Amino acid sequence: MTYLIPTSAGVYFLFTNVMILFIGLVYNNNSILLIGFILFTIFLISMIYTHFNLSGIVVDNCEFISGFVGEHQGLKYTIDNQVNAKRHALNLALGKGFEIPKIFMREVAEKQYQKSEKTFSLLKRGKYNFLKIKVFTTYPFGLFYAWVIFDTDITGYVYPELKGQNLHEKLKTSLREVDVTGQKDDLGEFREHKKYSVGESLKKIDWKIYAKRDSLMSKVYAENEIFTWTFSYASLMHLDEEEKISQLTKWVVECFALNQRWQLKLPGFSPVINRGDDFYFSCLQALATFGTQEGHD
Description:
The protein has 6 helices and 14 strands. It is of the alpha+beta class.
């Protein structure tokens, strides 16, 4: 069903039109009456055309594109113009009050089935549930506001902002906490030295070379152990809640990019050790919804 109401400009236009007709009747002035009838005709044509501009429009196949706070999220959708006439100046909106986003389509061709993708930015992390989408227009003169609402039931996530130390800085902190005396080369048969890479086991570092050259070199063994990062919410005591969540998110993203294993210790989240796409997104979703309501409208 299409709904239609006059805009504030439309109300002002109608009031002005009524005043012109009233003056024309009082003074029995045909020229003024003619102007009044012309303006009233424009008012009626605008009402009919604004309503007609939404007829035959269907929006479906909507999908929320998740993203990080401070970066772009988006909406994928298809718009179907089922009538043999162009549609102009259409807008789409989501949200409980249809406040996000305002997506503008200048023109939709007749009988067109179009796939589109638009980006926007939300500033609050969490899980978002959009149950409805609104298409609205004020075309052609802005005198009327017409809208139609479609059921969508879209769900998506806005992940925390990427902020804090990177893995290199975390490594430096870890080195200060390691007791470098009395370490044993128990990882297998020694082969050679190579430049240390972030994410490798600290046990592989040759501390004698580090003491002489101030350079991190790793020992290469016949059998390599798999290094696992541990990211703990409780250990970041010097940060507030949002800073903790942002820091953990940054580390998870960097670990995923390096294809390394990690463990996320977050209240209410199972602290398993893993890597890969599924584990990555489950961690991001847990971080996005930590301490929030189940879903935003």
